[in-house]
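S.,

Sequence below, as promised.
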Amino acid sequence: MPNIQVIIVEDDPIIAEDIKEMLSNINYSIIGIAYTKNAALDLIKTKNADLVLLDINLNGHFEGLEIATFINETKKIPFVYLTSYSSQEIIDKAKTTLPMGYIVKPFNERELYSTIEIALYNFSRFQISIEWNKENFNKLVENQITQKEFEILIGIYEGKNNLQLAESNFISVHTVKTHIKNIFEKLNTHTRSETIALLNKIFH
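The prediction came back faster than expected:
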């Protein structure tokens, strides 16, 4: 079971590889790199991503904004803009697509990591209208989950990666992966973001 799965959309292959290396260093899984709008749409349609890192300007056009609209209409997964543009006009246009973050190039590994962590956390922080406990949750789903699976599920909802889940639950990363696999099977989901979206749907 992979860790948090990321698609990179960036028209400069060198920058894309730099981002890939940064993400690999901080325990993320890169499941695809797209250099064009069409390639990005294909990846988003066919891959189960938890997050998209999205360049606003692709080959001289602001196609990242169009890709963001597609994500909002179809996948409901978080995305973070990566851009060289910081003008008020571009920021205003970007805001209307509801990104989970906006990072201006050039950036370093720490800036990228903190932006992604906050983005994943914010994506998970929708208001829940029912008390969080296993008993209430199991009343609302077909396949019952265990207490430990429920604790892992809360961690997923909070945006924790596999290592963080292992440390907070005092178990190995391998055991975390096993629990996540079981959770996905029981909830009929395939990614963390899909699981979070299901939780928000259940509790609203």
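The CA atoms of residues 62 and 164 lie 36 Å apart.

Coffee later?
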